[in-house]
């Protein structure tokens, strides 16, 4: 590879969602993934520590901004309001400037949490959390017609519940999605020509595939396709003497049992379900539940999706609260509840200052957090092994008073869920695997040290390292550090002091009032939501 320039002036971030280091190491050592092997031989590589929790909506913004969630502002797929309702997080909620706002021209493709698309010097095609291709999902807007012409069946994602018991068909659908995403990358490369300094493109297919399929032979075939894509991108970055960063937002591993964290809060009387009185009681006495109602409506051709998309969300929430069920949001009596878990392990104390029906005085919160930590850490399996990990929100997110009070995650083969159930644990059903803390980082370029091992790299370190590597200043408030171990000792980045710059949040527009029903269905199909 050419090392004609002392430092790169361009950088390419190639994202593979949910790829664990263990598989890359194993299969590149075995000669199954020759391009990943070349990345390790000709560049620097290692594990990449994710956010806590290790989920897509937190981690990709941290990769793109260099800060933890308390600074970029996104804590999950859904934002919890003071009135116990939720709405989808969007790009308008992002508080920290992204790489493509600091380096231009930039071309951004399929990056999660980028919808709605923002106007940048370059092109953008939004990724996960985009409702559908019926919405404006590109910048400039005319790029959409080029996608439709070149990739007629382009989709944002798959309808995962449809494939729960049809894994062979699911594998074909994932491969088709991967091929279309590859074609999109080629289209954006064509649009860019020579006019680019940053490329940031993400393939989410490995994450989606692994949630339902954790079979090594089938995974290897999928990873071989990723390896071919990597080879093309390596050739592309060589042509422009650009730095290449290959990253995953988190790792992956098998799961064996679901742990319902709200069950333990209810058992110990920190959480109370809404009583079946009034309208709820009348419906309950008739044997009417939310599941039965939605089932009956679907038999009449009226789907839950149709209801949500037709009626205002506030009205839907209000009606849902009156129908008996087991929903962790609608079926909780907040007038009596001390703590509850919402989203991917976000545990909230029902703070009287934070929530409309809060019952806990803020002075009591530290003591309750200690009690809840002891409670969750006491949950063990038949062998006496802990099933849950607990983290203090104030320690993880020190700059934001609105962050979750605790983070509760499954430990090892256990997956935490927030549904209200009468049982503490449950079968994983169609879900074969889920997220792990350690993803991957491999980098290669004119200044990168061949064969170097990166130790202690975190998702917030990618943006500062990339910026410094191409001679750009790093935001003063960045939580990440420059990974100097990645650079060859005599290269310009290795011998240059990190330049710092102040950044300010750009105006991203008003709240997004779109119908995210299809997004919610896809997230439910992957086990991310109830």
Automatic annotation (TrEMBL):
Keywords: Hydrolase. InterPro entries: Alkaline_phosphatase_core_sf, Phosphodiest/P_Trfase. Pfam families: Phosphodiest. Residues 494-515 are annotated as: Disordered. GO terms for molecular function: hydrolase activity. This is Predicted phosphohydrolase or phosphomutase, AlkP superfamily. It comes from Natronorubrum thiooxidans.
